[in-house]
Amino acid sequence: MSTSNSGFLAGAADIGRRLLRDRAALLGFALILLLVLAALFAPWLATHPTDVYEIHTARRLTPPGAEHWLGTDRMGADIYSRLLFGARITILIAVIAVGTAVLIGVPIGLVAGYYRNWFSDLLMRLSDIFLAVPQIVLAIAIAQTLGPSIENVILALSATYWPFWARLVYAETRSVKNETFVEAAIALGASAPRVMLLHILPNIASAIIVRTSIGMGATILTAAALGFLGLGAPPPTPEWGRTIAESREYLPEAWWYALAPGIAIFLVVMGFNLLGDGLRDILDPRIRRGGREP
Amino acid sequence: MKRLELILSRLLWLVPTLIGLGVITFLISHVIPTDPVAILAGENATAEQIAALRRELGFDRPLPVQLLAYFQDLLRGDMGVSLFSQQPIAEELATRLPATLELTFAAVLLASAIGIPLGVVSALRRNSAIDHALRVVTVSGLAIPSFWLAIQLQYLFAMKVGIAPLNGRIDGFGPEPLTGMMILDSLLQADWESLGGALRHIALPAITLALPAAATIARFTRAGVLEVVTSNYVLYECAMGLPGALVTWKYVLRNALISTVTQIGLIFGVLLSGAVVVEAVFDWPGLGAFAVISIIQSDHRAVMGFTLWAGAIFVIVNLIVDVLHTLIDPRSTR
């Protein structure tokens, strides 16, 4: 609840300490860290780093063993190595898509919640229409029209996810705007952008952070589903969802093919969900009081 | 009176939402920089052929005129013809609706049967080992990619153990179609063989869709029960010496399940319109599978038709849920 810089740092340190005590949130953080490390050091961690684009027909569909820890795929590529490089695509898509959605949604929510006029009504109605369709459906429609590529997946995801942040920020802004400290700032003659950015935004930041963590998980799941449907990056990109789609033809013999990418998606999404849950317990005590989580 | 007002205003809101949805699908299909006409014409089309096709399809007219024509077609129920089946898209979607409806009902029933008891136990045994174990299970349930789970279930139960069919809806012709929902149809006609076949086929896709849904339901039930258990009137009933089971059944569950019921309704809407990938993996001949076939064939009009349908279904289901909610819980009209 502080707007000064030192207070903010102390607050962040406090949040960090409390996160360390929440074992579930800590596990979530560890899983996300694992994903980031895998993506950063993929070329060094991979046992067969060139397999991302090379074809080795001689060792197609080899079961897991000493040479290929997680087996090989239909092109003879090492699944473990491709998994690591796939982590890069997952992070890239999730961070840019969610980042864009936040950058669109938060200002819209702020402005609409601050001025309450016909224009803010229009903005909120627009976001309601987007929210009126399941995200996967709109994302499919946009990604299909644009054609299969990573950029288009990112575009489709950010175009469908921004209303979540707009809605949240709108509601939070409206409730904070009536607080005495905002009224005081306005009375002192602070300009509207100043009030929004320096007085309202810091006080609703926790809600945005919680929503962003959970939103990352949801975005990664949807991106994987788009990849699975063939709407993501074209082969030989080591995208996890696409790898799972490819594996279907080789079942039941190549049981290992889809196993690792599926578990990877599961762990990463779980990481963001656990972290989001933990952050919400710490940052949003109102929900705790309502008995949502112990 | 307040309640009627709320329902009416929600009904009125349906109109601009559907129009907005129409505008969005129009913008996606007409304005996005990839040229839809060039795609339709194919890779080998000459510039003249593309221009001729553009005129024929009306893509050379000003955008507002195109938008108007688009809505005129929609109002007549005309969404164009599917490249896949050569059937009108609207007709194709209508004939596929019962299959999706059946799968959604099965999944929601299953999810409720799993999720509600888990949530109640979790809340009543709060902070026990069971509660912690169930927390892990529900968080996991929400993180599993459904298409992956579908494939693993196929591998395990259809390919290895062989107790469930790999995909499809029925072996042979199935029961005489009355409602289009095979389980219901075979029950109505006492066709036990078809009933068995239909149940075996629906098992795996229903389980795939039910697991994440059960996790959501369990979480909401747990939260609802916790809120009621700690309330004053439950404390009062307990203090009056009423047996615990009676308090749980009569006073806790009835009040706690309001938010769960709403949540089940929302899940129903999501599954009805968004079970795209799971239907595709199991070749379940519903709306979602049609969407995937259309994606593979780059059939723009069919994908947009599906988007509109799915959106409309979702909006209407949500509306019904809202109205039901105001009926069950009078507090929400305040």
UniProtKB/TrEMBL annotation, chain A:
The chain crosses the membrane at residues 24-46, 89-115, 136-161, 213-234, 254-276. Residues 87-276 form the ABC transmembrane type-1 domain. One of its GO terms (biological process) is peptide transport. Belongs to the binding-protein-dependent transport system permease family. Its main location: membrane. InterPro entries: BP-dependent_transpt_permease, MetI-like, MetI-like_sf, OppC_N. PANTHER family: D,D-DIPEPTIDE TRANSPORT SYSTEM PERMEASE PROTEIN DDPC-RELATED, OLIGOPEPTIDE TRANSPORT SYSTEM PERMEASE PROTEIN APPC. It is found in: Cell membrane. Keywords: Cell membrane, Membrane, Peptide transport, Protein transport, Transmembrane, Transmembrane helix, Transport. It comes from Teichococcus rhizosphaerae. One of its GO terms (cellular component) is plasma membrane. It is a multi-pass membrane protein. The keyword Transmembrane applies. This is D-ala-D-ala transporter subunit.
UniProtKB/TrEMBL annotation, chain B:
Keywords: Cell membrane, Membrane, Transmembrane, Transmembrane helix, Transport. Its main location: membrane. It comes from the Bacteria. Residues 97-325 form the ABC transmembrane type-1 domain. InterPro entries: BPD_transp_1_N, MetI-like, MetI-like_sf. GO terms for cellular component: plasma membrane. It is found in: Cell membrane. It is a multi-pass membrane protein. Pfam families: BPD_transp_1, BPD_transp_1_N. The chain crosses the membrane at residues 12-32, 103-124, 136-157, 202-221, 264-282, 303-328. GO terms for molecular function: dipeptide transmembrane transporter activity. PANTHER family: DIPEPTIDE TRANSPORT SYSTEM PERMEASE PROTEIN DPPB-RELATED. Belongs to the binding-protein-dependent transport system permease family. This is D-Ala-D-Ala transporter. It comes from Teichococcus rhizosphaerae. The lineage of its organism: Bacteria, Pseudomonadati, Pseudomonadota, Alphaproteobacteria, Acetobacterales.
